[in-house]
Protein: Porin B carbohydrate-selective OprB
Amino acid sequence: MKAFLPQALRFVTPTCLLATGLGAALLASTVPSWAATVPLATDILPSGVPLPVPAPSFVRPPEDSSTELLGHAGGARDWLARQGVSLTIQDVEEIWGLPAGGTQRGATYDGMTAAALMLDTQPLFGLKNGLFNISALQIRGRSFTAERLGALNTVSGYDAGRSTRLFELWYEQGFLNNHLNVRVGSLDLDTEFLVSQNASFFLNSSFGWPLSTSSNLYSGGPSWPFSALGGRIKWTPAQPLVLMGAITDDNPTQGPFYSTISPTERDPSGTTFSTHGGVLFMGEAQLWLDMARQLAGPDAPALPGTWKLGGLYDTGRFPDQRYDANGTLLASPDSSGAPYYHHGNWILYAVIDQMIWRKAKNSGKTINFFARAIAANQTRNQFAFEIQSGFTFDELLPDRPDDTIGIAWGTSLYSAQARHYAQDSVRLGTSQPYSLTPEHHFELTYQAAVTPYLIVQPDFQYFMHVGGTTQDPTTGKRIHNGVVAGLNITTTF
Structure:
């Protein structure tokens, strides 16, 4: 994913730097006409994001429509670009198979088509550093994880409910030479917050918006494929440091915390624009640094890294994991079944993205490491701790300079209240004997650049303790470890 990849894909690492604010100070002098956080096409992808070789600085590349399937579209793209208009369309096709374990062997298809329109306000209206963005999704297929695997962590970010929907709709304005910019509208927070650049390369959805947030927040929070009304501010007080904060509605689909109706069924068009429920506050501090030059001096090969600390606080009402509204154990036959609701909830996290080896100065042959740790409130959340880690290898294979290989692992640990509920259920005889145990998932993936606009990614995943239990609490039967094989094909038009 270097010079061989299309414009929209091969610069996704700079895109991630932009999306997280790490290149804002550098970008301010190189792209004066665009707001500091211009999203490229890959910001709309929840997983399987291509990774070019990281660089210690960012220079926005020139537009090159010839690297996309439709090319210059008879000159239409070039004309639109002169007017400040950019349109990107991406298509993702996936097939997943379960040769062993899980609940039902077989294969399942899912897919997505995404379109994003961006308007630069300077050529259109003479307003410098303004950007309008609107995007939409068409999600299709069936859920492999729900129907065949039974795991807590879905095998792909595209393993979502079928819908044709609005994704994001916002306006952003840059100030102070783009060292400060403000975005307002309907926002998807997982394109900027809690992001690990290298983790996003993997297909399992937990490496994007993790289980700790998707299961502990209403409708999974403002995360793909949902967005929520709110605003985000980003400030670069000094070149290595970026500070971000966001305030949004905490319930994108306006539903209860527990529901038999899926979030995509509740809001199939993405136009609910909910103001129901609580307010979600999210903040993050980010530090960009070059470890090699810090330790070995300016002549050492660059080893860029990104280190982040962040957290969120939700003012909404969250169910206790063990007790009902009357103070009775939820697992008791005498329980009303309606949990006690607490006011407020918090989650904290840390993210490291670090290049740890480079063959030579300016070489594209690199090894990159990532780690992400998450902690959450023990009484309100089913999962209190989560950790993911992995490596990506660029230019590892001879004669394949544009390909990347990755290996990663992740797990989520239950909160004390959730474990106590399981023990209560067995002790009081309201379920088959079982205990909660962390689900572990491993992923080995290979991303190949077949053409400048076509990415093919075969993928292998292995799940231990599928569903996070020793056995199914409703049947008492054990769910065997899952072996998953898949293929992702992404095309940029």
Remarks:
- The chain is about 15% helix and 40% strand.
